[in-house]
Amino acid sequence: MKKDSKIFLAGHNGLVGSAIYKLLKQRGYTNIVSRTRNELDLKDQQKVKEFFTLEQPMYVILAAAKVGGILANSTYRADFIYENLQIQNNVIHQSYLSGVEKLLFLGSSCIYPKESKVPISENELLSSFLEYSNEPYAIAKIAGLKTCESYNMQYGTNFIAVMPTNLYGINDNFNLETSHVLPALIRKIHLGKCLDEGDYQAIAADLNKYSDEQLIEESALIQELAKHGIHLHLGKVSITLWGTGQPLREFLFAEDMADACLFLMKNTEFKDLVELSGNGSEEIRNTHINLGSGVDLSIKELSEIIKEIVGFKGDILWDINKPDGTMVKTLDVSKLKDLGWQAQTSLEVGIRKVYEAYNKQ
Fold it and tell me: Minimal CB count within 10 Å: which of 44, 121, 136, 161?
């Protein structure tokens, strides 16, 4: 990509898109096209067609998606499969029709079966059953990467798909109803610390930021915290988290993910991925790329790291009646390393950056 090449970044306000947008700007790219959800509904086929006809981007980075944690995925199953299929089908198809030179599609590591061999290589795709709680979202993302692969094979396009592990970053979603595990832990433990210190002003400011109802009274604030597993009993604060704490998870700092995406946009072509995948001439499959750090830890260990960084002195308890999800999801990132990239930011450093930014907000 040249510095003045027109790049359409879909989803520039989300965690993934904002990190990519920031890095593009830092590296001197001057012709980045983006639209908010209100300006362009990517689920609307006609609107997407009109946008591509008008803008004619040379490169497309598809980071737009409906995302969320276990609770959101379990609750809004129809929304997750419908909205993601609509978004990616419209953008990928119009990229083909308008002659886009290269497209990068971002998926998720949840595409892999629940019982995948660990670390999970790209070849584990479709080898067994998916985790039930996020099956609709996973199926949509599998369809997206297969759409890219199929368009390349039939039409000679240069669309590549990357499957990031669990991402976290400064522009994360901290809404406790829809967030992923790491930002949810940061916010819950931060609120637990505020409660432990009796800082009800800070609690009110935090809770009211995400609620239409403006809570002020201490009793109402304590009641609201209890809904999220944060309890004050006999002067002692405890936080109850879902599951056993035993599942192992891998995390990648969003700024590292953005660096990997730009690296692949500049240095990797679909033909390179066909060669790396070791496919025969008759069957081309699993040409997507895992994005991750290659390092995992348990949710319990993660909570202890966040507890220390935040400075929470109370107890963390576990509700074993709640689901754990897939027990191990560590990715095999050897293909990514073979292409010449690996993560640079340690988990502790990344979490400190996120928490510092959260406090400033």
Answer: 44
303 and 140 in contact (C-beta within 8 Å)? no
Q: Tell whether omega for the bond before 136 is within 30 degrees of 0, i.e. cis.
A: no
Residue 281's pLDDT band (cuts 50, 70, 90): low
Contact 318, 239 (CB under 8 A): no
Rounded to whole angstroms, how far apart are CA atoms 355 and 195?
A: 17
Residues in the chain: 361
Q: Tokens for 336?
A: 């990514």
* Residue 154 CB contacts under 8 Å (≥ 6 apart), including other chains: none
- Classify 80 in phi/psi space as left (phi over 0), alpha (psi -120 to 50) or beta: alpha
Average pLDDT over residues 76-100: 97
Q: What is the DSSP string of 47-97?
A: HHHHHHHHH--SEEEE-------HHHHHH-HHHHHHHHHHHHHHHHHHHHH
Q: Please measure the distance between the N-terminal and C-terminal CA atoms of the chain and give it in whole angstroms.
A: 34
Listing from the earlier edge strand, what are the strands of the sheet with 289-291? 32-33, 7-10, 59-62, 102-106, 159-164, 289-291
pLDDT tens per residue, range 329-344: 899 999 999 999 999 9
**Between these two residues, 281 and 320, which has the higher pLDDT value?**
320
DSSP state of 171: T
Please tell me the pTM assigned to this model. Answer: 0.91
Q: 137 an active-site residue?
A: yes
CB atoms within 10 A of CB 90: 22
Q: What whole-number distance in Å separates Cα of residue 171 and Cα of residue 12? A: 11
Instruction: List 237's β-bridge partners, or say none.
Output: 232
Amino acid at 295: V
Q: Rounded to the nearest 5 degrees, what angle is found at the Cα of 202, between the Cα atoms of 201 and 205?
A: 85
What is the β-pairing status of strands 296-298 and 248-253? antiparallel
Two structure tokens written together for 305? 């790291």
Catalytic site residue from 29, 96, 112, 137: 137
Q: What six digits make up the tokens of 326?
A: 């897939």
Measuring CA to CA, which residue among 71, 85, 63 is closest to residue 136? 85
Where residue 138 falls among pLDDT bands split at 50, 70, 90?
very high
What is the pLDDT, as a whole number, of residue 27? 97
